Amino acid sequence: QVQLLESGGGLVQTGGSLRLSCAASGGTFSRYHMGWFRQAPGKERVYVAGIAWLGGSIYYQHYADSVRGRFTISRDNAKNTLYLQMNYLKPEDTAVYYCAAKSSGSHSSSVRDYDYWGQGTPVTVSS
Question: What are the C-alpha distances in Å from 101 to residues 69, 98, 104?
Fold first, then answer.
């Protein structure tokens, strides 16, 4: 069983930056595909970015079109922690951000393919 705990959300102005963290416990973190998702009020949860394990120490980063070039996903396996650096934030980035872990198969951007979820951290971008 994997437990995930997000932190780092908050209120920021348009154009500002935030870094989200997701601390993982249980399981073998380095072998999980990890993802960030977000859910805006009244909307479905959607994919933001993922970092997939390809074997050994090789990872693959992938981004939704809406955040590519502004957000960077990374992981520190020694600290069992996933990160999301968010730059040039826009009001439309306002949402609760969730990290998720996928324990098998290949990378996915689908909510239903992830096995474990954190409780979420809210991000609000003011205009």
Answer: 23, 10, 9
